[in-house]
């Protein structure tokens, strides 16, 4: 801490010295330079008031400043957008996808290089070898969720699994039952499947969530009708990381003899789960969210009591006829390996991610005023941290944080400028929903990356707020809600 | 299994872990190897030790292969790894 304390005077003296020394020709460059060092000095002062930063965090901050100043000394003054810092951005978007674990890639490669048989070929050794590997993977996936290997069906990903489950069950039982229950905060592929079914004469109830993002059990109970065929509630939300009370919902569904589907793409391999204990009838799993390859997923379909589906893909009758098409053996092996690693590492991963999450939340809260953590504080997966930064335009902050790969919400909707429908369902005001940023932490994230992100966020939020007239009004104590923005005609 | 053999295995695993060109894999791998050897340090049961060593040897082979692959497909360095350019240049 003492180093940090000494720095401001040193920097400002240096800045003064350089101002005196440089000739008028270099005035432009130099102005930029002094601006930069002043910024650093100012930050140092603000840090003095935050004694809760640990020594390690202070070192990272100091190292960052060292990068800043050394670049400045070299001549191309580091402007506030860090355009001159080299290197690719750090990855903090574990909810959209995760890197393939080297252990997983190592398991997959033989099936790309030498074991290229079709797992459905029964007449030769090539087929037998890949079939054995596929069945081993199936067992690994099943073991991770407490299921039987026969209940696992490989698909192309969680989107296909969700489609197959919802449309499959609805269409199979459509003669007698035509009502489906889901929530407003589901993933787009669940909502869109439901909308598709609505067009085909089904009725869908979209349950609201409270401001923590949780669905109420009473609502679920009251929504179930005699003709309800399926309840679909996601386990961990992809935007805010909230964990729904799946076990209780499963119990209600079992009592009322309604099938229960859960989209567990963000949950499998990260939190312990058991399909028996949670009374789950159908569950969607994704490969690339658990450090596996992209293009593979799985659907758990309960056998006792039996859940029947009408397949959405017809053909050669692979996967018990529920999903025809040759299995991509290398991807299946990768998914199996990813599940095996997840099972072994779950405890460590959870602990690691919790520590980083706690570090990120504590630092952001202590260094940036007016931030709100979206979603429940308690019922959540710690690797998904969704913050709203008040009085900052979300898109500008995303643009400013070019050296950190983060997202404003779901990757599927990140192209649109609309605020997240999940946050709107929580009752988050439109202005706050516009300023949300999701930080995704995973197995490979390090503490250094978290500190770097906080440092950048701190700088840019301050910079963007300095430019904002709204922020100025807030500082003056004007209540923004009392302002009449348009003139009445 | 002698102490020196285990130590040799440990050093080899650290060596290949540090060869990963990707920052995140390198940091994770180093931390993970250290952690598991520290955890298994207190193992007394002969059979359990053999099992742990066998697993470590398998992982060593994986590390050797994956570190090499990582060297072949090097990506750009991460922003937090960026070297501070020296002032003499």
TrEMBL record, chain A:
Keywords: Iron, Iron-sulfur, Metal-binding, Pyridoxal phosphate, Transferase
Single GO molecular function: cysteine desulfurase activity
Enzyme class (EC, first level): transferase
InterPro entries: Aminotrans_V_dom (IPR000192), Aminotrans_V_PyrdxlP_BS (IPR020578), Cys_deSase_IscS (IPR010240), PyrdxlP-dep_Trfase (IPR015424), PyrdxlP-dep_Trfase_major (IPR015421), PyrdxlP-dep_Trfase_small (IPR015422)
Transmembrane segments: none
Pfam families associated with the record: Aminotran_5 (PF00266)
Entry cofactors: pyridoxal 5'-phosphate
GO CC field: L-cysteine desulfurase complex; mitochondrion
A Gene Ontology BP annotation from the UniProt entry: [2Fe-2S] cluster assembly
EC number(s) per entry: 2.8.1.7
PROSITE patterns with a match to the protein in the record: AA_TRANSFER_CLASS_5
Keyword match Metal-binding: yes
Domain Aminotransferase class V: 90-451
Family membership noted in the UniProt record: Belongs to the class-V pyridoxal-phosphate-dependent aminotransferase family. NifS/IscS subfamily.
Protein name: cysteine desulfurase
Species assigned in the record: Galdieria sulphuraria (Red alga)
UniProtKB/TrEMBL annotation, chain B:
A Gene Ontology term for the protein's cellular component: L-cysteine desulfurase complex
GO biological process, one term: iron-sulfur cluster assembly
Domain Complex 1 LYR protein: 5-62
Alphabetized Pfam families for the sequence: Complex1_LYR (PF05347)
InterPro entries noted in UniProt: Complex1_LYR_dom, Complex1_LYR_LYRM4, ISC_assembly_LYR
Recorded superkingdom: Eukaryota
Family: Belongs to the complex I LYR family.
Protein name: Complex 1 LYR protein domain-containing protein
Annotated organism of origin: Galdieria sulphuraria
């Amino acid at each position: 801490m003492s180093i940090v304390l000494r720095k401001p005077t040193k920097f400002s003296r240096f800045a003064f010295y350089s101002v005196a020394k440089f000739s008028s020709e270099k005035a432009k460059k130099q102005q930029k330079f002094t601006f930069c060092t002043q910024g650093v000095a100012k930050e140092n002062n603000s840090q003095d008031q935050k004694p809760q930063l640990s020594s390690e965090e202070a070192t990272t901050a100091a190292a960052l400043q060292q990068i800043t100043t050394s670049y400045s000394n070299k001549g191309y003054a580091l402007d506030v957008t860090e355009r001159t810092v080299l290197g690719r951005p750090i990855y903090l978007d574990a909810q959209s996808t995760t890197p393939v674990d080297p252990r997983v890639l190592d398991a997959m490669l033989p099936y790309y290089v030498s074991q290229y048989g079709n797992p459905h070929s029964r007449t030769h050794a090539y087929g037998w070898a890949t079939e054995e590997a596929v069945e081993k993977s199936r067992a690994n996936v099943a073991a991770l969720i407490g299921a039987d290997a026969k209940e696992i069906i490989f698909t192309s990903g969680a989107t296909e699994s969700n489609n197959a489950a919802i449309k499959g069950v609805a269409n199979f039982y459509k003669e007698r039952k035509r009502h489906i229950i889901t929530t407003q905060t589901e993933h787009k592929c669940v909502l869109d499947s439901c909308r598709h079914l609505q067009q085909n004469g089904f009725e869908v109830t979209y349950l609201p969530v409270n401001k923590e993002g949780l669905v109420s059990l009473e609502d679920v109970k009251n929504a179930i009708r005699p003709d309800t065929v399926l309840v679909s509630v996601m386990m961990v939300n992809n935007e805010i990381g909230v964990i729904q009370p799946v076990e209780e919902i499963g119990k209600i569904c079992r009592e009322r003899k309604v099938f229960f589907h859960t989209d567990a793409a963000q949950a499998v391999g990260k939190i312990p789960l058991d399909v028996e204990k949670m009374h789950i009838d159908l569950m969607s799993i994704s490969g690339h969210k658990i450090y596996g390859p992209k293009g593979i997923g799985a659907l758990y379909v309960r056998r006792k009591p039996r859940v029947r589906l009408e397949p959405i893909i017809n053909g050669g009758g692979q996967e018990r006829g529920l999903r025809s098409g040759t299995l991509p053996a290398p991807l299946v092996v990768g998914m199996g390996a990813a599940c095996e690693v997840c099972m072994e590492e779950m405890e460590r991963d959870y602990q690691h991610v919790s520590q980083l999450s706690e570090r990120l939340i504590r630092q952001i809260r202590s260094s940036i005023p007016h931030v709100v953590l979206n979603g429940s504080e308690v019922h959540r997966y710690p690797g998904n941290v969704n913050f709203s930064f008040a009085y900052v335009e979300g898109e500008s902050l995303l643009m400013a944080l070019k050296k950190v790969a983060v997202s404003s919400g779901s990757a599927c909707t990140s192209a649109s400028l609309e605020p997240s429908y999940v946050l709107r369902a929580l009752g988050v005001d439109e202005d706050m929903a516009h300023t949300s940023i999701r930080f995704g932490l995973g197995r490979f994230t390090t503490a250094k990356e978290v500190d770097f992100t906080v440092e950048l966020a701190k700088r840019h939020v301050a910079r963007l707020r300095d430019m904002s007239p709204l922020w100025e009004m807030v500082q003056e104590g004007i209540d923004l809600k009392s302002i009449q923005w348009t003139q009445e005609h | 299994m002698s102490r020196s053999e285990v130590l040799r295995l440990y050093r080899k695993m650290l060596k290949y872990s540090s060869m990963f060109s990707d920052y995140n894999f390198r940091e994770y791998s180093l931390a993970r190897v250290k952690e598991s050897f520290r955890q298994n340090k207190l193992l007394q049961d002969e059979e359990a030790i053999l099992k742990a060593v066998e697993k470590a040897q398998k992982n060593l082979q994986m590390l050797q292969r994956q570190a090499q692959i990582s060297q072949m497909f090097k990506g750009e360095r991460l922003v937090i790894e960026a070297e501070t350019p020296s002032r003499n240049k």
